[in-house]
Amino acid sequence: MTNTLHRYGRAESFYDDYIVFAIPCKGKNDEDAVEKLKIFLGICAKHQPINLGNSSFGSYRPSSDLGPAVHWKRSLAGDERSVIDGINRTATAAAVFDSRDKAEACLRDLVEADLGLSVNVSTSVEGAKRVAADCGIQRHSVEYSLGFDDQHDHLPDKRVLGLSTMCGHGMVSANLAKKMIDMVYEGRRTPEQAAVVLARFCPCGAYNPVRARRLLDTGSGSSG
Amino acid sequence: MQIDPKKCVACANCVPVCPMNAISIDATVNRAVIDYDGCVECGTCFRGMSQEHLNPTLVRAVRRLAKLFRFRFEPEPDVCPTASFVMEELSWPRIVRRVFSDPLVEHSSTGIHGRGTEEVKTNDVSDRIAVGEVGYVIEFGRPGVGVRFHEIQTMTMALADIGVTFEANNPITHLMSDEGRGIIKQDLFDEKILSAIVEIKTAIEEVPQILEIVAAVSRRIDTVVALGVSTRCDENGNDELLVPLLRDLGHSVERAKTNMGLGRITNAPVVEGAR
Hints:
Distance between the termini of chain B: 42 Å
Strand order of the largest sheet of chain A: 2-3-1-4
Mean pLDDT of chain A: 93
Largest interface: A-B, 97 and 96 residues
Strand order of the largest sheet of chain B: 12-7-13
Order of helices and strands of chain A: EHEHEHEHEHHHH
Number of strands of chain B: 14
Low-confidence stretches of chain B: none
Largest sheet of chain A: 4 strands, antiparallel
Oligomer: heterodimer
Strand content of chain B: 15-25%
Shape of chain B: elongated
Order of helices and strands of chain B: EEEHEHEEHHEEHHEEEEHEHE
Structural class of chain B: alpha+beta
Mean pLDDT of chain B: 92
Number of helices of chain A: 8
Largest sheet of chain B: 3 strands, antiparallel
Distance between the termini of chain A: 25 Å
Low-confidence stretches of chain A: 220-224
C-alpha cells in the first residue's frame, strides 16, 4: 500500500485527503482477518467515506456489461456495500475521507472496536499527527515520502501529477489525466464526471474523487 | 496483452488509458495496436476500461458515417465498445512484467499484493523497525515511466557495495542471483515493469550516505525514483530523530503514512510439535 505515500502536492493540498487503512500482519494477526476487515470497512462506512477499497476493487469500478445508453446516462455513484461484502481474502482495506474530522471520528470508533489489526493513516505528516493527538493515541511508526527524483524529465506537469498519483499503483495514466483536464476545460465533461472516470481505474479504491474534482475544477493542480 | 483485430473498431479510447503509452492506432490497418516491448502487462486496458459488447461491423459503419459528415461522437472515455482486449497466458520471463505491474496479482514471496512488503504498516505487530533504525522503500518507475531490471540492478549493486542487507521478503530480493552483490537474474535484465520497490534497513547514522547513493544512482538510470523512509516513534509517539535529520539534509517532508499503533498479535500460539 505504498500506493498512497507518494501523492503529489504540498502538505496543505491534502486537507481533503485522509486515507485510513487496515492491514493484517502475516502470521501474527491474520487469522479471522477477513471478518475483521469487513468490520473495519463497516465502521469506516459510517463516517461518509468518499471511496472504499478491498484490494480487489473500490467503490468506483468499471463494468463489463454496459449498454449503449451509458453514453448519455451513466451513474456517478459509488457502491460501498459491495466493497465490504466483496472481501474474501486477507489484504489491505482502505477508506478515503475528505476531511480530518471524518477520519478522526472513524479512528475513534476503530480504537473502540479494538480489532487488533494495524491501522494507518496516509495524509500530510501534520494531519496524521493531529488525528492521533485528538484521538488520544500515540503514533507507532511513520513512513515519510521524500517525493520523486526525476533526473531525466520524464514526468508530466504538476496538474497531471496531482491527478495521476492518487492511484499509487500507477493505473491512472498521465495521458488519461491530461485528457480529463482537457475535457473539463472544453466543457465536454463536468469535473465530477471526469473525477469518477479516473477513480474507476484505481482497483484499490484509494483514489480520492473529491480531491480530483477540486483539482479539475480549479485547474490549479496540486497547489490547490 | 493483445487486442483482437476482429473486434477493435479503432475508437482510440484505450490510447490514453495505457500508463506506459504503449497503445496506438495503426492507421494502415485502422486498428489499435500494442507495442509489445513497451507493454508491462499491468492490465489497465483490460481491467480498467468498462466494456460494451457491440457488434464491431455495426460500430465501424456508424463511425464511417459520422466521419463522412464530420460528426463528433462523444463516447464515454473509459469504455471499450467491443471488449477487444485479451489477456494472454504469459511464460517466464515475461510473466514477471505482470507480477510487478498488476496490483491484483499476488507475489508468491510476500503473500501480499503490490510491489513491496508490509513495511512499517504492521510495525506495531512485526517490530521490523526499531527506534533509531530507518527503513527505506526505494521505488523505481512510478509514476508512469516504467523501469527495466538492469536499471534496478544499478541501484542494488551500489547499495550492496556498502554492505546493506536487502529485505528478505521483498520480491526484488527474491529475483537476485547474488544477494551479497545485489545482482539480479540476468534473463530478466531487459524486462520492463511498471514499478518495483527495493527495501533496506540501516541505523539512523547511515541515512545521509544512503540518500546520497540513491540520488547519485538516480542520475545514472533512465527512470524516476521515489523514496520513502520510515522509523519507529518514541514512547511518546514522537519522531525526534528522523524528521529533523531529513530537514537538515534539505528534504521537504510533506506526506507520510502513519501507523497508529492499534495492531497486536491475535493469532493462536503455534503449539510445539503440532505441525
